[in-house]
Task: inverse folding
């Protein structure tokens, strides 16, 4: 089982740069909303529907993930790296990516805001290998 290390992502998580990052469960398939609802309930995560149909989920105190619940082949979400500073907080991100990846049996990719995580991720969780893969040097 691979781990996600602060030393590997620190440069990408600089809060003075773009602090919102885009995530995607690649190939999650239709029905993503129901699957996310089931995962939230099974994990006991707090959640709230925001304006525009966005589902805010708190996998841990002070760590919010916004799922963009538009039906499609992929499931998109946003994270705020200001909430993920230091190894203990990156451990929360790793646990979240692993939970989502295993629930869907699909890769979960992260990219900088405005870049497509399907095409230019800097990091992804490989659910088959149960490992984190660094896709970009910077």
Result:
């Amino acid at each position: 089982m691979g781990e996600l290390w602060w030393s590997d992502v620190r440069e990408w998580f600089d809060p003075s740069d773009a602090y919102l990052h885009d995530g995607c469960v690649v190939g999650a398939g239709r029905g993503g909303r129901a699957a996310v609802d089931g995962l939230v309930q099974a994990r006991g995560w707090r959640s709230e529907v925001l304006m525009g149909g966005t589902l805010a989920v708190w996998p841990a105190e002070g760590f919010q993930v916004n799922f963009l619940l538009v039906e499609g082949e992929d499931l998109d979400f946003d994270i705020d790296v200001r909430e993920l500073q230091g190894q203990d907080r990156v451990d929360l991100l790793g646990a979240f990516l692993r939970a989502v990846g295993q629930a869907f049996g699909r890769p979960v990719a992260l990219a900088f805001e405005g870049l497509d995580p399907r095409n230019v991720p800097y990091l992804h969780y490989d659910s088959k290998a149960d490992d984190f893969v660094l896709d970009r040097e910077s």
